[in-house]
Amino acid sequence: MATTPRRAAILGGNRIPFARQNGAYAKASNQDLLTATLDGLAARFGLAGTHLDEVVAGAVLKHSRDFNLTRESVLGSALSPTTPAYDIQQACGTGLEAAILVTNKIALGQVDSGIAGGVDSSSDAPIALNEDFRQTLLAANRAKTTGQKAKALTRFRPQQLLPSIPQNTEPRTGLSMGEHMAITAATWGITREAQDELAAASHQNLAAAYDRGFMDDLLTPYLGLTRDANLRADSTVEKLAKLKPVFGRGEGATMTAGNSTPLTDGASAVLLSSEEWASEHGLPPLAYFVDGQTAAVDYVSGEEGLLMAPAYAVPRLLARQGLSLQDFDYYEIHEAFAATVLVTLKAWEDAEFCKSRLGLDAPLGSIDRSKLNVNGSSLAAGHPFAATGGRIVASLAKMLHEKGTGSRGLISICAAGGQGVVAILEGA
Amino acid sequence: MTVAVTTLTSAPSLARVFATSALTAYGKKGSVLPDRTLRLEGVRVDRDHLVAYQRLCAFGVGDVLPHTYPHILGFPLQASVMSARDFPLALPGMVHLANAITVHRRLTADDALDITVSARDLRPHLKGRVVDLVTEVDVAGERVWESRSTYLSRGGSNPDAAQEAAAPDLPPGDPVAVLRIPEDIGRRYAAVSGDVNPIHLHPLTAKAMGFPRAIAHGMWTGARTIAAVSNAAGDPSTSQIRFRKPVFLPSTVEITRAASGDSVVAGMRSRKNPETEHLVLTLA
């Protein structure tokens, strides 16, 4: 066992094309999507029958029967059945958090190889029993005698047959993520034009990445899809400007279906290992996982915006690594909404925010926007919640490898519950 | 002045109290409050009832009594005081204007509560007359919780009536939460609280009382607002709830919030028409 932390290498990744909700993957389950993704990864890196030390993944929208989702997916995949697995869940931060966990174990010498991933199906979503019906059935189940059971069941009413559909709202506030973001966007004065420009760039950048073959070794076709179904290569600011706002109210509403991510189905996985394991298997590292950081904010009281936590996590990570915000070749800021990216960047430029909220003497400053989401991000690809982290880690690792040894990339992902997960990668 | 304390052996049945109050509602007169205090000793919390209340108001399920829970235990005594033949105001149609609660110490489901209720301070109001029902809860002789519920009996106008203490404005701005209040919340809260006032139960019974639709119980909207803005209101704390427009069922409402020092001001307003204000709460 290693006595000093080891470098954790990113060897590559795989994902399936992301489908729009109720599209190509409408009838596939989370387990189907994740298994297909693991099989694609195994095929690309020759891992069929190979024992890995662990697979860590998760889903945000998860059926209670899928308590061992990742392990079941491993058992259904080409990987050796001796590969252990566990599930995690940190909303949209799930995929990146999985990578932090696996790379930490690699650094400590507890594992030599592993896969971090994530999957989400918004189509094959869990539907719960009506809460009253559930309580009635539980009461009947607790009853000991037939008479007591019969009595408990008399509380059944026909309207209890109406199922409970999962709500896309924050449990504590009753506001959807888009409504929360609309409040934050208005507070920061983010314009409709700026959001549409970012959205158009995301589509154009991802389309260009497909066209030059960048995606070829990051993706395995699935159920007839070879590209992300949400991608609009011909997207322009002019076309996006025609859409009506869907979040926010009145004159100031700026957020549309075009500059917000749609509900999506998909999965991703990243192969991680120690340098020794990589060299033994003849797999050259693309990048190293340098460090990760999480943060959370008090959005329940309205003190801070729901999706602002990455703005707090990044300066803590920079301080620990002795880096400035400008010391990066690429920035991958997850586009939950175009406004999320724009507010985060604006907050880091804002002296007052950086002083009073982040406790910094000087603002973090601006970034070179030509280094931001250069191969597109979630607005174009779509955002199957837990799968986004793996999508970004794999593509950023490849970009850094192309850039060269020592190049640096920053990942920032916001998550429900007022959370944020961020990380730094370094090119190998 | 001596006060006649009547100690009851069990909580009065609210269904009976409401039935009696309907019969005694006519011919109410006088301007003197009867010199009467009702007391219920050694009240034990029914844990199933506590859980039902905690779930309904969105407090977490646990051993600590929510800030507003003792109000439910004292409410049968309040109704009993107000339905007495010699009580000068009629119970049916009474409007809950305000409620102030002080939790002196954290209470749990294991505490044996001595609950005392009396009517105080009958006074003229712009739109009729108001009275305070004061509920005091002791454990082993120590005052642990108290509440002052202010009710309006409509009728007559008293333009010269002294102004009630001014309520703070609802905090303006974006909502911190949106609550979708279901049509059956009145029936659900009636089942837990025993407050079966017909204005809360069904559109038809509410229409009979002059309301277009059923309205939510004020103490449910107040408790739900407290649950929305605080995790710790079962600890020593003070709240003041001022009720404004009723919440017609079903409704979607917004919670707004502003903090100043250790106290929080929260408001509940209509989501559709934000100028329709339902209540304002201060919690410290």
Report on the architecture of this protein.
The complex is a heterodimer of chains A (428) and B (284). In chain A, helix 3 (94-108) crosses helix 14 (388-403). Chain A is built from 14 helices and 12 strands. Chain A has helices at 30-45, 69-75, 94-108, 131-142, 146-153, 177-187, 192-211, 237-240, 275-280, 309-321, 338-349, 351-356, 378-381, 388-403; strands at residues 8-15, 19-20, 54-57, 85-87, 113-120, 245-247, 255-256, 264-274, 287-296, 330-333, 408-415, 419-427. Chain A has a domain at 177-212 and 289-427: Peroxisomal Thiolase, Chain A, domain 1 (3-Layer(aba) Sandwich). With 428 residues, chain A is α+β, with helices and mostly antiparallel strands. In chain B, 23% of the residues lie in helices and 34% in strands. The mean pLDDT of chain B is 92. Chain B has helices spanning 14-24, 47-57, 69-83, 185-193, 203-208, 218-229, and strands spanning 4-8, 36-43, 95-103, 113-125, 128-139, 142-154, 177-181, 237-243, 251-260, 263-270, 277-283. Chain B contains 6 helices and 11 strands. In chain B, helix 1 packs parallel to helix 3 and helix 2 packs antiparallel against helix 4. The chains are: A alpha+beta (428), B alpha+beta (284). Chains A and B meet through helix 6 of A and strand 7 of B.
Distance between the terminal alpha carbons of chain A, to the nearest Å? 24 Å
Rounded mean pLDDT of chain B is 92
Q: CATH homologous superfamily name of chain B?
A: Hotdog Thioesterase
Q: Main sheet of chain B?
A: 11 strands, mixed
The CATH architecture designation of chain B is Roll
Number of domains of chain B: 1
- Main sheet summary of chain A: 10 strands, mixed
Radius of gyration of chain B: 18 Å
Top CATH class of one domain in chain A: Alpha Beta
Q: Strand share of the residues of chain B?
A: 25-35%
The helix-and-strand class of chain A reads alpha+beta
Strand order of the largest sheet of chain B: 1-2-4-5-6-3-8-11-10-9-7
Termini separation of chain B comes to 34 Å
How much helical structure, as a percent, in the residues of chain A?
25-40%
From the 3D structure, determine the CATH topology of chain B.
Answer: Thiol Ester Dehydrase, Chain A
Q: What does the radius of gyration of chain A come to? A: 22 Å
- SSE ordering of chain B: EHEHHEEEEEHHHEEEE
